Amino acid sequence: MSYENSQRLPTGQNGLPRSVSKLAAFAASMPEASVNSACGALAGAASGIVTCPLDVIKTKLQAQGGFRPRVNGSNVARTRTYTGLIATAQTIWRQDGLRGMYRGLGPMLVGYLPTWAVYMSVYSGAREYYYDRLGQFGHKQVSTQ
Predict the structure, then answer these.
(1) Is residue 145 part of a domain?
(2) 69 secondary structure, DSSP code
(3) For the chain, which end, N or C, has fewer CB atoms within 10 Å of the first or last residue's CB respectively?
(4) What is the reported pTM?
(5) Which domain holds residue 70?
(6) What pLDDT is stored for residue 71 in this prediction?
(7) Residue 126: C-alpha distances to residues 39, 68, 70, 113 (Å)
């Protein structure tokens, strides 16, 4: 919606069109650094939720056999519980269900949320800082004619 069209809409007490939700009005009133931090934290949470099952599978594959019993200084042969990505996922699903696939999600999120919040804030601040200092230096001008 263009600015001109938004001027014709009936406005609420906050001066914004009534069609704007309270969440959008709240986000518009927040400082940009806070919005970047919140968006970074949400992106970190989303990536953690998506990648957690793969991380659990990777950890199970890496950890198997790490604590094999020893007899006379050599490892005792033992069958492998996990044989590959799909088989490991199936075994975890059968034994622990959805909860098993997301084992360790809490600590992962505790690390991801502040990491991505800081990353997005620093990235945005650095981008603005260097854009203000360098201007269009290094960027091609696009003609609209």
Answers:
(1) no
(2) -
(3) C
(4) 0.64
(5) 35-125
(6) 67
(7) 17, 50, 54, 20
In a domain, 63, yes or no: yes
Residue 25 placed within a domain: no
Place of tokens 């970047």: 36
In whole angstroms, give the CA distance from residue 56 to residue 53: 5
The C-alpha atoms of residue 84 and residue 61 are separated, in whole angstroms, by 8
Do the Cβ atoms of 36 and 120 come closer than 8 Å? Answer: yes
Structure tokens at 54: 């793969």
Per residue in 16-71, pLDDT tens? 556 667 777 787 888 888 888 999 999 999 999 999 999 999 999 888 866 666 66
Q: What residues contact 49, with CB distance under 8 A and at least 6 apart?
A: 102, 105
| Residue 121 CB neighbour total at 10 angstroms | 20
Residue identified by tokens 């603005």 is: 128
Cα-trace Rg, the chain: 26
59 is a domain residue: yes
Residues 113/37, Cβ–Cβ less than 8 Å: no
Are the C-beta atoms of 55 and 108 separated by less than 8 Å? yes
Domains: count for the chain: 1
